[in-house]
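Notes to self after the Tuesday call (sharing in case useful).
The group wants a holo model before anyone commits to mutagenesis around the pocket. I volunteered. Ligand is adenosine-5'-diphosphate. Logging inputs and output together so the record is complete.
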Amino acid sequence: MSEQKIKKPAAVISVAIQKGGSAKTTLAVNLAAELGSQGYNVLVIDVDPQANASAHISVAHPSTLSKNASTLFRGNLEEIMASIQVETNPGFENVHLIPGSLELDQSVEESLRNHSPRPYEEMRRRIGLLREAYDVIIIDTPPSLRLLTGNALAASTHYIVPIETSSQYPLYGVADLVAYIERIKESINPDLVNIGVLISRHDERRRACKAILETVQEKIGNILPVIIHAGAKVGDASIARVPIRKMEKDGRVAKDFADLATFLINTLGLEKSDESGNA
Ligand SMILES: Nc1ncnc2c1ncn2[C@@H]1O[C@H](COP(=O)(O)OP(=O)(O)O)[C@@H](O)[C@H]1O
Ligand SMILES: [Mg+2]
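Result:
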């Protein structure tokens, strides 16, 4: 172990699937908290205009914050730095946030579409310095395949697709998602890596869940070895604005997220920039 090693730029992980209610935000928030608790410097970027991840993580309500993720699409460095929230709720140690806002929907999409010379590459152009400052960046995306999600994928090193097995149409839109990501890879980001499908909100006692898992296995494959189980307290944790690990310390879902973090640390080779306080 050398004393001073050069920091690897942060892995940038987009959580993406255009179906709402797929457990994207739950994944982004709880994975960030878990990695933060292990001493990784984590930045969550919320590009969903609904700002659910921001409401969960931020001390101040996202609607009261003057700067938000729109800076990543059209801001200068100073504005981007000013949009980072370093004060986050208890349980989100080492987690910073660039919040989401309705401004993303109303104004950013439109200005990207109408005025940007490279509408899919604005965020990619601006994310470099953040990658130097953090160990992991997690991007929560909106339930659509438009410019906000496209920019997130173009700016990412990796993406992960949560699919929840208590849903009626689990494969809804997956073919479109795959084709969309292929286009982003071909035109902008050839190195984008698919981490895989994260089975979420899974209840193996329910026959419907098991059947859906089998369908996903058969039709999509590439399922991660870690599954996030359904937990009664997951919704309560988001209302209480704490990570599930804080609400149910020894609970199953908390353990699932810890296992997921371990899996990602190992497969992506995540590194901490500051080893001083941690084993
Ligand atoms: N493991 C889980 N157990 C129970 N409920 C969950 C779980 N994961 C997500 N949910 C619930 O499912 C709903 C949708 O999750 P969310 O993360 O907001 O999805 P998305 O961001 O894809 O729209 C939320 O009410 C959330 O609390
Ligand atoms: Mg969401």
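Two things stood out.
The longest strand covers residues 193-200.
Residues 24-25, 48, 52 surround magnesium ion (ligand 2) (CB under 6 Å).
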